[in-house]
Amino acid sequence: MNYKKVLFTCFFLLALVIPVSANATTEKNIIDLSKWQNVGINYSGSEPAPIWKVNSTNTAVTQTLNARPAVFMGDMECANNSVRGSFSVDTTSDNDFVGFVFGYKDSGHFYLFDWKQSDEDFHGLGKQGMSIKKVNTNTSLSDSDLWPTSNTDKVKVLYHNNITYKDQMLYNFTLNFTDKGSFNIVIKQGNTVLDSITIKDSTYTSGKFGFYNYSQEMVTYSVSEFEKLPPVVKVTSTQNEKVDLSWTAVEGATSYNIKRDTTSGGPYTTIGQSTSTTYTDTTVANGTTYYYVVTAVNTGGESENSNEVSAKPIAPAKAPINLVAKANNAKVDLVWSASQSATSYNIKRATTAGGPYTTIGQSTSTTYTDTTVANGTTYYYVVTAVNAGGESENSNEVSARPIAPAKAPINLVAKANNAKVDLVWSASQSATSYNIKRATTAGGPYTTIGQSTSTTYTDTTVANGTTYYYVVTAVNAGGESENSNEVSAKPIAPAKAPINLVAKANNAKVDLVWSASQSATSYNIKRSTTAGGPYTTIGQSTSTTYTDTTVANGTTYYYVVTAVNAGGESENSNEVSATPTNPTVTLEVTSVDKAKLDDEITANIVIHNAVNICAEDLKISYDTSKLQFINAENADGMKIYKEDDIAAGVKRYITACLGKANAANGDKILLKLKFKAIDKGEAKIDITNGRIADNVTLEMDVSQENCGEKTILIEGVKDVNRTGEYTLLDLGIDAWYYGYAAVDTDTSKYDADQIINGSIDDDDLTEIVAQILANTNYSANK
User: Which residues, including other chains, have CB under 8 Å from residue 318's CB and lie 6 or more apart?
Assistant: First the structure.
């Protein structure tokens, strides 16, 4: 194709919205293009590489060759910056792509602005006009990805227009790039805006800026500058005679100037200052439209204006008129005349004329149905109109009393207590009162024993042990309903107080147990820190046990228990006390009870009753005449940080857990020691000193009486049938017992468990064969 010459002069104003110093209000951050370099796009084509030449003042760069797609880039971050510049195309021989990249992450991930002078079908149709594209690929790009003005699997076209550029014409542009998932590009010819493009896309919210060239020689880019974006302002709310504003914070700002005018674009007058990112303007008049901008200020001066926003405060709507209420079954319908400028209405209700009223709902029309009413109740309603200016006065008040024929009450329930029966039922529509009826025979006949205007009744004219049958009827002005469902109840005396209450103190808990109380359905557990109370109920139980885990070690607690049934609560049980305590921390050596000469013995150093113990300093002695030390090993979740030989047969270890999940709680192995049995007799391993620490404040010595020791009996080699030497008969005896547990052999005659592991297996037989072969008195079968 015919490549062409383009003069692309691109300069960017880089002046921070908040100046960098007291004298930097208008200072420009000039970009030194000599520090920029060619960045090849991840491209698989065969065109020649571009040639970039920076001028002598380092303020302009020229791409001199009709070449493959390429980027000339520095290290400037686009996020939250405004990039401004200009370019001109000085050629009549070609019509290809000029532009820039931004949000650049790498050669396959960036946004691209390119501008083509006219349509050309080369590697697909490259259309005349400006395009914004998103490049997103981990593989190489080709001409068929970058040339066409259409989507591929690697490049997505976010925007396109058909505006052409003219040769030898100066164009200005602005790129505003935020880290909030949006950016704006404005292209101007002189003071005429050719296009203003806003894109919302959050694929890249940061990245570098660079010049872009594709198939266009002799393109010159020059004088690049950046500046921080000013605050982004929005109207939070418009109300009666006030406007609420908020904006995004600007890095480095110490305060903000709020400016206003009644004409879009100003000139603006400063009306206030704020050190936060909000401001309320109370100097406005309802019905007037106001235009606002905000500037950021620090010791270096004042930023440029933010975006302009507008607001028009408004007076509250007038009160609605002609409110009418219509009562129905379990609902009230309301209707009223519209209030000019209202956007919604609040519906308010009371059960007393004149209020006070409670807001029960909202409506955007002039009707509302209240379905939260009870038949037989008179309700009083008003409505208010709402708009941005606030809420109106109340409308006229209306009333309504929903009603329906009385129906028999349902869901009657009886609960027996001591010398009384509690009744409860569901409300009957339109009932004004209820008759309570009773009999001592199922099905009646019933006698009216009382009335109620609620849905509850307590019958206190009963005797414990007698069964009573109840029905309820609903009454209103229209008469009495049918009977409700029948229920029965047998009042009962309270259970007797529990006896034999016993408390057992443990670590951070107290266990309670007591004898069952006849007829009790549950028990209340009560506690005090003073003998005799007063007591506080701390729990319930349906069994005769309870564990109190809400105690503190070292405090004495006093407990009583009461029995509960339908008749109520009993008297207190006997009082008991308990003082929970923290068990004593002890150190123990665990190992085998017996071993044989040359056996390897493992001795574990174990801590008991630990609570978050994280570090230990231990001194351990052992019988060097019977034991030979082999090594020490880390226990699970533990590490040895210091191992010292203090004296012959005396070793010191400093250990610690590896993280809180491995802290010692309860019982835990701290250290593993390996020994070899070297002589017969009793060999002792003794923890002579121990110091421990937790993760907060505890550091303590474990007393000698709480440091354990282990005595191991080391025996010589003993043949199976105890003749004093190993022969084939020993092997035969163990072969007979193969698979037996050691305790199931004839231990009075035989030592069948040769390796002392609790069972007769291959290891025992292998040991016997080795001893037979070592017996010089044994005559082998030849």
Answer: 339, 340, 385, 392
Task: Tell me the pLDDT of the chain averaged across its residues.
Answer: 89
Q: For the full predicted model, state whether its pTM sits above 0.85.
A: no
Coil/strand/helix, residue 734? helix
Report the pLDDT averaged over residues 469-488. 88
Residue 527 structure tokens:
């506690």
Residue 438: both structure tokens together: 């009773």
> Model confidence over 660-711: pLDDT tens digits?
999 999 899 999 999 999 988 899 999 999 999 999 888 999 999 999 999 9
Beta-sheet pairing, 70-77 with 182-189: unpaired
User: Contact, 116 vs 127, CB < 8 A?
Assistant: yes
Q: With CA atoms as reference, report the closest residue to 222 among 430, 51, 53, 475.
A: 53
Residue type, 449: I
Separation of alpha carbons 111 and 41, rounded Å: 12
Euclidean distance between CA atoms 516 and 497, whole angstroms? 9
Q: Is the preceding peptide bond at 534 cis, omega within 30 degrees of 0?
A: yes
**Stretch 157-161: mean pLDDT:** 97
Question: What is d(CA 479, CA 492) in angstroms, rounded to the nearest whole number?
Answer: 36
Residue with tokens 């796009």: 41
Residue 340 has pLDDT above 70, yes or no: yes
List CB contacts of 482: < 8 A, sequence separation 6 or more: 407, 408, 473
Q: The tokens of 293 are what?
A: 């901008």
Distance CA 310, CA 84 (A): 26
Report the C-alpha gap between 301 and 782 in whole angstroms: 111
User: pLDDT per residue over 453-476, tens digit each?
Assistant: 999 999 999 999 999 999 999 987
Query: Nearest Cα to 627, choosing from 709, 707, 572?
Result: 709
CB of 84 closer than 8 Å to CB of 240: no
The tokens of 670 are what? 């701290």
Domains of the chain: 4-228 (2.60.120.200), 233-311 (2.60.40.10), 321-400 (2.60.40.10), 410-489 (2.60.40.10), 499-578 (2.60.40.10), 586-715 (2.60.40.680), 728-774 (no CATH)
